[in-house]
Amino acid sequence: MPARRRRWLLTVPVLAIGAAIWWLFLRESDDRSVLQVKLPASVQGVECVSWGFTDVLTKCAFRVDRHDYPRLLEGWSFTPFHCPPQNSQEAVGGPEVGQVFAVAECLSARPEEFTHGGRVFVVASADRTRGVVDLYIE
């Protein structure tokens, strides 16, 4: 087999594997539907990143009118929990997304629809105009 053909046969799988890794773990999205919820019209600047392979691991940062913030929490039973003083990146972990802000509120839900397990974390700024939703579905 000629050397040129061998290089081609080795290069194509390496590129395909690299593209698959990017698609499955590191792709970024500006798709509001990734959260599978209806968002208020005032939600802007949505930035999402998904990095899961066998599970759904998606995190979205956003801005919202503070009067619409409660509408983001409709549909699931959220429970507040104590979160130490930290910024939005530290609060939810994973790849960085959106502009970092000081976290003043932390909420958690375990939706029944996630039949194999999972949870939703929401962290928000003190004025409730910035937030991050962290979605995990097994």
Write the layout of secondary structure elements.
Elements: H1 3-26, E1 28-29, E2 44-50, E3 56-63, H2 69-72, E4 79-80, H3 88-92, E5 105-109, E6 118-124, E7 130-137
Antiparallel strand pairs: 1-2, 2-3, 3-7, 4-5, 5-6, 6-7
Task: Explain this structure.
By secondary structure, the protein is an alpha+beta fold. Helix content is 24%, strand content 28%. The protein has a seven-stranded antiparallel beta sheet.
Calculate the mean pLDDT score and round it: 77
Q: Termini distance?
A: 46 Å
Secondary structure class reads: alpha+beta
The total domain count is 1
Helix count? Answer: 3
| Residue runs with pLDDT of under 50 for 5 or more positions | 8-35
Element string (H = helix, E = strand): HEEEHEHEEE
The Cα radius of gyration reads: 19 Å
Largest sheet: 7 strands, antiparallel
Number of strands: 7
Strand order of the largest sheet: 1-2-3-7-6-5-4
What is the helix content? 10-25%
Strand-residue proportion: 25-35%
